[in-house]
Specification:
The chain is mainly α. The protein has 20 helices and nine strands.
């Protein structure tokens, strides 16, 4: 009997996402329930955005939740390496095999040619897609252009007629017409694979038997299945999990809900409660109980109990569940968790270092340093009234700073200062003109300990959350403003 092997394959391109943890949890439970193995693989072929810092954050966040893997970049295993960036020769070899078989081809189109092709298709009222022009080149022409070192990609061939029947564990048979499929790029001009090729090659070579992934991948499933067919490999069993939703039913996004796992850690949620809540996303225990442990979820796990209705990620419900866990802890454990969260020696030393020079008695510490032991702060709107900037400019400045800080991977005082300085210069003002906005947003007060030092100590998640809260307090950002202001970002240095 084949051993069940599942995997999670996150991209290390940002904060560790609750959606990643949700999919990881269900893959873990499915594997454990069947006595199988759970693998972690890093999809880091986006060389521009992938970082080792982000990769480590993924490891730390999943482990904080209690999710452990049998094989991965940090624990090794028999099917390594487990980073796609370290497997590029494999993908090149398999891509060339597809070309030799006649199932893929070289394409030398420039980005400008592709843009023009799509523009012409749209002008004719057609769905923009690659028109297959690379298939018209003779073997001699291809050889000549390759020898000349011309930039190129490798694309897969796809049928233009008929339907592909996708077998899904939750939906049964799903028919998807082939005319919706584009001739997918498999190898990019930089020689690295796209998701489609790397995914198929890695899942096959790592012996993955079942793939539980988000339902956003269902429309492109035919391309993956066709690649398995081209290689003559058995495709894994697929399960397309329902997407997490905001309370308004839109796809979960950081614009409407905190999505970083580390945010919930910094806010003081218990990992057991967080994992419990993720387990309730579209799934339920046979007895419908709300509170259960990971071990209990594994014991009673049945993938057929997953509901296809988009599960709502509601922070209020998560907080309620977390309260249930907290109140049922033995008092000693409650005190220990509280100490670990905010009163651990490392954190306390950093806070004390900022507060010591500003107090005359210990009793002054609470109002001065209270912000270090809070989630959100609640400043008064009047604190954001500015002598030089209009209310709209205040909102714009805070939003631009927030966006730039969301892209900041090295979270330290120097980087934070550089971001605020860059936004100030772009808006034609000085750093000292924007700092009076940062103090109330971060501390809830007009003044505090050094707010830039405080942001470094608080960390990225809480700092950015408080900036979002301040923007909402001032009326938020309209869709029109959001669109217009995002266009300014490339012009702001930092």
């Amino acid at each position: 009997m084949t051993t069940v092997r599942t995997r999670i394959a996150p991209s290390p391109t940002g904060d560790p996402h609750v959606g990643t943890a949700y999919i990881a949890l269900f893959n873990l439970c499915f594997a454990r329930q069947h006595g199988g193995q759970f693998i972690l693989r890093i999809e880091d072929t986006d060389q521009v955005r992938s970082t080792r810092e982000s990769e480590q954050q993924i490891f730390d966040a999943l482990r904080w939740l209690g999710i452990e893997w049998d094989e991965g970049p940090d624990v090794g295993g028999p099917y390594g390496p487990y980073r796609q960036s370290e497997r590029s020769e494999l993908y090149q070899r398999y891509a060339r095999q597809l070309v030799e078989q006649g199932d893929a081809f070289y394409c030398f189109c420039t980005p400008e040619e592709l843009d023009q092709m799509r523009a012409e298709q749209m002008a004719r009222g057609e769905t923009p897609r690659y028109d297959g022009r690379g298939l018209q080149l003779s073997a001699e022409e291809v050889a000549r252009r390759l020898a000349a070192g011309e930039p190129h990609v490798i694309r897969m061939k796809v049928p233009s007629e008929g339907v592909c029947v996708v077998q899904d564990m939750l939906r049964g048979e799903v028919e998807i017409p082939w005319d919706r499929m584009d001739m997918q790029v498999l190898i990019k001009t930089d020689g690295l694979p796209t998701y489609f090729l790397a995914n198929v090659v890695d899942d096959h070579l790592m012996g993955i038997t079942h793939v539980l992934r988000g339902e956003e991948w269902l429309p492109s499933a035919p391309k993956l299945l066709k690649l398995y067919e081209y290689f003559g490999w058995q495709a894994p069993v697929n399960c397309y999990m329902p997407l997490l939703r905001n309370p308004d039913k839109s796809k979960l996004s950081k614009r409407k809900n905190p999505t970083s796992i580390t945010f919930y850690q910094r806010m003081g949620y218990l990992p057991e409660a967080m994992l419990n809540y993720l387990g309730r996303m579209g799934w339920s225990m046979p007895d419908e109980r709300e509170k259960f442990s990971l071990a209990e979820m594994i014991e009673h796990f049945d993938i057929q109990r997953v509901s296809l209705g988009g599960p709502i990620f509601d922070v209020e419900k998560l907080s309620w569940l977390n309260g249930q866990w907290l109140r049922e802890l033995p008092l000693e454990r409650f005190a220990a968790e509280l100490q670990k969260w905010a009163f651990n020696p490392d954190y306390l030393m950093r806070v004390a270092g900022l507060a010591q020079s500003r107090v005359e008695t210990f009793s002054e510490l609470a109002p001065l340093a209270g912000m270090f032991f809070m989630g959100g702060v609640h400043p008064e709107a009047r604190l954001f009234e500015h002598k030089k900037l209009s209310p709209e400019q205040v909102r714009q400045a805070l939003q631009l700073i927030l966006w730039k800080l969301e892209a900041l991977r090295q979270w330290n005082k120097e980087g934070i200062t550089a971001v605020i300085q860059a936004v100030a210069e772009f808006l034609g003002c000085k750093l000292r003109d924007l700092m009076p906005l940062i103090f109330p947003a971060i501390s809830g007060q007009a003044s505090s300990v050094s707010v830039l030092d405080a942001m470094e100590v608080l960390g990225a998640d809480l700092s950015r959350f408080r900036l979002r809260q301040a923007i909402e307090l001032l009326g938020g950002v309209s869709k029109k403003e959001n669109k217009e202001w995002e266009k300014l970002l490339p012009h702001i240095g930092s």
